[in-house]
Amino acid sequence: MTRQEQLEQRERESLYLMDAWQELLPGIRPPSKSQWHIWLQRFDPEALLYAIGEARRKNEKMDGTMTQIHAIRFTASVANRVLSEAGDEQTEQAA
Questions:
Q1: Which of 14, 41, 66, 86 might form a disulfide with 36, Cβ 3.0–4.6 angstroms?
Q2: How far is CA 37 from CA 8, 59, 62, 66, 81, in A?
Q3: Structural domains of the chain, count
Q4: Domain range for residue 41?
């Protein structure tokens, strides 16, 4: 895949995830486009989608009072946990 194709794919993924954010976390402004690109360099889109879903559940438990920064940090934390767990599974399989 060329660099241009990678950038186009990342752009499509970020738009998809922004739409998911707006649907799952209405009323909480989505992260900036640059934040999505940073996240997509580190995390799989499915991990981010899962993390957004977890942020939705957390926001519901908080009666919809989650702030944007809290939602962003929580989403990143969940995505990091997913990444860590995936790494642990790969290590176990290699052993």
A1: 14
A2: 11, 24, 28, 23, 19
A3: 1
A4: 3-94
